[in-house]
Design a protein that fits this description.
eight-stranded mixed sheet; alpha/beta; globular; 15 strands
């Protein structure tokens, strides 16, 4: 272990298999996996935890949690050795202050990578040896697992962002960029654009290697030829999961993808999306499959979501509209159908007013003119505020009460499979703090004054018993947009499920509308 911050001090590595080292040498760890996990948890969080809380996270009630905690702490003290004072444990709380490789990565999870020096980015990229605590999963410790998986997702996104930043920044130094591009390609094996970038870098490296040296060629020797570039396996794969990146106006990295062929449909970003994971999720996969069947579907992850940059400060409405503009430009779209879902309906309306020449038609599903706080209904505000409070405590955790409330609100028709996938969707797509901030920002949306300014053909669809956005919101939206058509769908679900008639009806309306307006 050679990258400890200072010689002689203890260093904890969690970006890969768990390791503890001092002065370049690994320290022997206790055989108890739970003790190692406790050590990692205390090291990474770096704050005081109540003993009762640690017992709740790591031990079952039928056992002797307090006794087990005392035993594990005694083993951790042996690991710390001369640094034993770093562990502070009294009758009520426990804390540990040691250096971790995660602490060095953390500013890059939450900051603007474009402002950081290249050598610092390369050093941090080199410290990531694998998935976060990849060898310390505890299947029966649900709260610990939720924490570990959430941070693993953050580390993965940070690694993707760092590698992408470095590949772009070092494009003029192919020998330096190529290993980073290869590593990025292993993380995004189906990204066609990245495979092409890697081929270009390989060709530059080969060309540089083939440059003549100061030695004269032997008489009669044939001129050197560069070998033909081998086709990457990724280029032969379905580009459906290829991920591309662009920059927002404030430098935030946005991830977008394109699938299918035909008249383009751009889905304006909504929260809780993940460009690659959504293909596996029964909550969203049928949307992408059907929207890509006869058209080119362009979609992107909203800032703070999915593969786009997380923990971004600005989540204002105007910024969301600006992000949509940047994706349109990066994707090279000239004219397209704009699809808004839920809160992105308002973003779509604002974009269509700014750029009517780009939008052949606009489809709005499950949207609202005013967010729940702007609507001013005291009962609704009280309910939503209670849910927002639950968000910070229950988001992405094995909390049956929160899962029941949240999933039932969005998908009353959910099966047990959907409930399980909703947990994973929350965990993968957005952090608790970002989820809270995004919901707060969308709660004050009000596009009442914009509706009459829309000048593009518009289709408004809404589930009749939608619990997230009342059907009256859809009717009000359609009534305010000149010439808009409105259809109610027979469903309770804010997110329409595969197999329900309302989803099939939704797709039929979309295809008919696109066929009618795409050539206009």
């Amino acid at each position: 272990m050679t990258d400890s911050p200072q010689a002689g001090l203890l260093g904890v590595r969690v970006l890969g298999d768990f390791q503890v080292g001092r002065a370049g040498e690994l320290v022997e760890l206790p055989p108890s996996k739970k003790t190692r996990a406790l050590l990692a948890y205390l090291a990474v969080t770096g704050r005081a935890h109540q003993r009762e809380r640690l017992c709740e996270i790591f031990w079952d009630i039928p056992d002797d949690p307090r006794g087990a905690l005392r035993w594990s702490l005694s083993k951790i003290r042996l690991v710390l050795g001369a640094d034993e004072s770093a562990l502070v444990a009294d009758r009520n709380s426990v804390s540990l202050k040691v250096e971790t490789d995660y602490a060095r990565l953390l500013p890059m999870v939450k900051g603007d990578l474009s402002l950081l020096p290249t050598d610092e980015l390369e050093a941090v990229a080199g410290s990531i040896r694998g998935d976060f605590l990849s060898d310390l999963s505890l299947d029966r410790c649900f709260q610990y697992e939720a924490w570990r998986k959430a941070l693993a997702s953050e580390v993965e996104l940070a690694e993707l962002g760092i590698l992408r930043e470095l590949v772009e920044r070092l494009a003029g130094e192919p020998r330096r960029a190529l290993p980073l591009a290869r590593r990025l390609s292993r993380l995004l094996p189906e990204d066609i654009g990245l495979a092409e970038e890697m081929e270009a870098l390989e060709e530059k490296v080969r060309a540089a290697a083939a440059q003549p040296t100061s030695r004269s060629p032997q008489p009669g020797a044939a001129p050197a030829q560069s070998p033909s570039p081998a086709k990457s396996p990724a280029t032969a794969q379905d580009p459906g999961r290829a991920v591309h990146f662009c920059r927002a106006r404030d430098g935030t990295r946005l991830a977008y993808a394109m699938t299918g062929s035909g008249a383009p449909i751009l889905r304006a970003a909504h929260w809780m999306s993940h460009l690659t994971f959504d293909w596996d999720s029964p909550i969203w996969r049928h949307w992408m499959r059907e929207l890509s069947r006869q058209n080119q579907l362009v979609r992107y992850d909203e800032r703070c979501n999915g593969l786009s940059q997380r923990h971004v400060v600005d989540v204002s409405f105007d910024t969301m509209v600006s992000d949509l503009e940047c994706v349109v430009e990066a994707a090279g779209l000239d004219r397209f159908t704009l699809l808004g879902l839920s809160q992105s309906c308002a973003v779509s309306i604002a974009y269509a007013i700014r750029h009517p020449e780009k939008v052949s038609g606009m489809i709005l599903y499950g949207g609202y003119v005013k967010g729940w706080r702007a609507r001013g209904d005291a009962g609704e505000i009280a309910t939503r505020e209670a849910i927002a409070t639950l968000m910070r405590e229950g988001w992405g955790k094995q909390n049956p009460m929160f899962r029941q409330v949240f999933c039932s609100m969005f998908i009353p028709g959910a099966t047990h499979e959907h409930f399980a996938w909703m947990d994973e969707l929350m965990l993968r797509t957005v952090s608790p703090d970002d989820a809270f901030r995004l919901q707060s920002a969308s709660s004050v949306i009000d596009v009442s004054d914009l509706l009459e300014k829309v000048r593009v053909p518009t289709l408004v669809l809404h589930a009749r018993e939608d619990n997230v956005a009342p059907v009256e919101s859809g009717r009000t939206m359609a009534a305010g947009i000149p010439g808009a058509r409105f259809f109610e769908l027979e469903s309770q679900n804010h997110i329409l499920l595969e197999g329900e008639p309302a989803f099939d009806e939704f797709i039929a309306h979309v295809r008919a509308f696109v066929a009618k307006t795409a050539g206009s």
